[in-house]
Amino acid sequence: xxxxxxxxxxxxxxxxxxxxxxxxxxxxxxxxxxxxxxxxxxxxxxxxxxxxxxxxxxxxxxxxxxxxxxxxxxxxxxxxxxxxxxxxxxxxxxxxxxxxxxxxxxxxxxxxxxxxxxxxxxxxxxxxxxxxxxxxxxxxxxxxxxxxxxxxxxxxxxxxxxxxxxxxxxxxxxxxxxxxxxxxxxxxxxxxxxxxxxxxxxxxxxxxxxxxxxxxxxxxxxxxxxxxxxxxxxxxxxxxxxxxxxxxxxxxxxxxxxxxxxxxxxxxxxxxxxxxxxxxxxxxxxxxxxxxxxxxxxxxxxxxxxxxxxxxxxxxxxxxxxxxxxxxxxxxxxxxxxxxxxxxxxxxxxxxxxxxxxxxxxxxxxxxxxxxxxxxxxxxxxxxxxxxxxxxxxxxxxxxxxxxxxxxxxxxxxxxxxxxxxxxxxxxxxxxxxxxxxxxxxxxxxxxxxxxxxxxxxxxxxxxxxxxxxxxxxxxxxxxxxxxxxxxxxx
Length: 491
Prior knowledge:
rod-shaped, 24 helices
């Protein structure tokens, strides 16, 4: 008989866990998960609930507990899957239906949420939580309808209000956040809109709607090149994204037309530039910031074409779109100066200087104030009918002509009213000559000083006339065939 080889290895007996063992083990994991949940250590609680599910995958409550933990971790899509699994395993599991409804509501599917809460009420008509959540879901549906109506009417403030209320119940709904962000962008509240879109992109960098909103903010802030990049990226993620396609087309068209206008202006083809800026303004009326610049650009071209009134209108349109646009105020002020509308120019320069207290802006304001002050005095150049660059000889000739024209002796046969008017003009001519023929007085007058401060003193217009033409007998006024017709005879 062969001997038994005692060194031969012996196969160990297999360790087989019974269903009862697995259930006990699962319960232990669940209890540990519950303890961690109470301590708000949700990630660790999630791990233990997962172990419980692995040990006993047919237990509805384990999925329900893990769903609750995932909800606390704001992982609502995963929580929705677990809660749905829990009610598949047990259709009467009310906590499972409640959690499924809460997940649907948090994700913005209020209709599906309502069905879940209705199921709970069928199982327990007095369930207070289900009754309240059902009302919440109905409120969210109503806010959705109001927002849709508001968007169609371009009442973007109303849409933002509705989305804020809806997000109180549906905090994880990207759709609501995107709609709010889009309306914030359309309202010009770009930092807020970008913040919302950026939060979504941090969680989902491929979200086409968020990429579109980021591009929209840049587009409306006149950062068109960067905006196009975001629109292109959004279309790469979602080729059928109609809003991104339209915005991308408008952005490219606006950029091209504006650049054409700028090129024409640099080439001094002001007519072409004016027309190109006009065409650019028709591309997208909603792009406020870019259109403000286009109006100002067109005003600049218009000023070059001496269309000063139209240029002022364009600057006013730019300011209406963007009341912080300094260049538009400066351009309009210069047009007012060119039209000698000094009060309006001072008003614009004051606005600029209060906004940006630079030396240049201060000088512009002081110059406009000086011109305004000068405009309220007698314009001696106009009185004599000469330009501000008139020579000494031109001033003398002008005085000779105007003094003879308005001398009282020439109008001795006219009515009393006419005589008084002509006498007044005669004195003004003498006053004008006294100032403009004296270099010091002329300098003070041109610089805007009050001449009384410089000792202009009293003067007699007749004395000036006699000094200019000579003493009595050097000239006479005689009529020539009837009243009102005169000729002058000099000695």
